[in-house]
Amino acid sequence: MTRLRWQGDEDLLGELKEAVRHAGRVPEPVREAGRAAFASRMPRTGLLLARLTYDSLLDDSLLFRSGLQARPRIVTFEASLLALELELAEDRIVGQLVPPVPGTVTMMTLDGTAGRALSDRVGCFMLPRLSPRPVRFCCLTRVSLITDWMQS
Amino acid sequence: MSVAARYQLSAADAQDVSQIVWLRLVEHLAELREPRALPRWIITTTGNECVRLLRAARRTELFNPSTWIPPDDVDHAGVDKAMLSAERRQALLQALAELPDHQRRLLLLLLEDPPLSYADISTRLGVPLGSIGPTRARAMQRLRSAPALQALSEVGQEPGGRGGRHDTAAMAGR
């Protein structure tokens, strides 16, 4: 049994109180972002939600390799039947639908559509890179998906 | 916000992170059927977004080891202390979030300021007065044995040193 640093219950309760009090201070912009997120929620009729399953920025195995600075960020979104792989270069986004399938890929921001591209027969497409803000992608093919939001 | 504080993000960065977490949460709410899964989901998603943001920022600041001069005016002790207390707060909140509902509700009432009497608490929760003491004792015991706090106590136990978990947080925060 590890030694705990709280001698008595009062000690622990006191620190818990401080933690709760501290966490209670949610800044107004954060509350506002929450309201906006719920307001922006739209029906996903016929669209599969593709989860963000890989982000090279979170890949610890890449952390200490040389050349990280030069390497574009790679992200993957996956739904049950279709995946979207994106390479985020400085000036553009190169993507591929896996398995390769032709279709339309739309990049969306909270303000609306920010770009649209057709994927070719190997599922590849290109979109302009945006300044950092939340984006998501909607892919209309024979299986259609919408991705999680991500910070571009 | 306490997760973001642990990563020492600026207020603006913390807001960016919270925006993404909110946006993602509204899409995933339907899948989170178990209410107790929600705090962990938020903590994990927020933590990932904080790391992503810090690493993205680091990519844009090219680092040249041959010209880098270590800053000597950084209050390392102060930073460590702030980080440790943010980490302790987060671990406590996580442990609290993972308690069974009735235990968490009781502890939150016990933390009220000014303090409530057991009689008030009994009325508010609709439970017998005599059950409050034993429930409190079980809640405190469960809190102490929560994995989040166990991990923390292992870190705190090393004399003058820091455990691996804290080192990771410290690296991500710098």
Protein described:
The complex is a heterodimer of chains A (152) and B (174). With 152 residues, chain A is an alpha+beta fold. Helix content of chain A is 19%, strand content 39%. Chain A contains two helices and ten strands, in the order H-H-E-E-E-E-E-E-E-E-E-E. In chain A, strands 1, 2, 3, 4, 5, 6, 7, 8, 9 and 10 form a ten-stranded mixed sheet that branches. The longest helix of chain A has 16 residues. Chain B has nine helices and no strands. The longest helix of chain B is centred in the N-terminal third of the chain and has 24 residues. Chain B is globular and about 70 Å long. Classes of the chains: A alpha+beta (152), B mainly alpha (174). The interface between A and B is large, with 43 and 49 residues.
Question: Could you give a quick summary of the protein structure above?
Answer:
The complex is a heterodimer of chains A (152) and B (174). Chain A is α+β, with helices and mostly antiparallel strands.
